[in-house]
Amino acid sequence: MWNIIWWFKPETTNAYIKLVHQNKLNPFDKKLWQRNFYDNIIKNKEEYFKISKYTDENVLKWEEDKFYYTEV
Description:
By secondary structure, the chain is an all-alpha fold. It has one domain. It is built from two helices and no strands. The protein is flat.
C-alpha cells in the first residue's frame, strides 16, 4: 500500500501545479499532503465499523482543527 501513496502524492501534486500554471486552479500556499500517513489493516467487521464511524464523525470536527482555514 505504501507504494501507491508514494506514487499518488507527487503525481497529484504535479498535476495540481500544472493546472495552477495554466490558470485553471488558484494557488494554494499551504502543503497539499501531510508528510506521512498512518497505515492500518482492518482485521474484522468490528474494526471496520469503528474506523468508519471515526472517519464519518471526524470530518464534522474540521472547523475545530488547528489547521482549519477558509479561502477568501
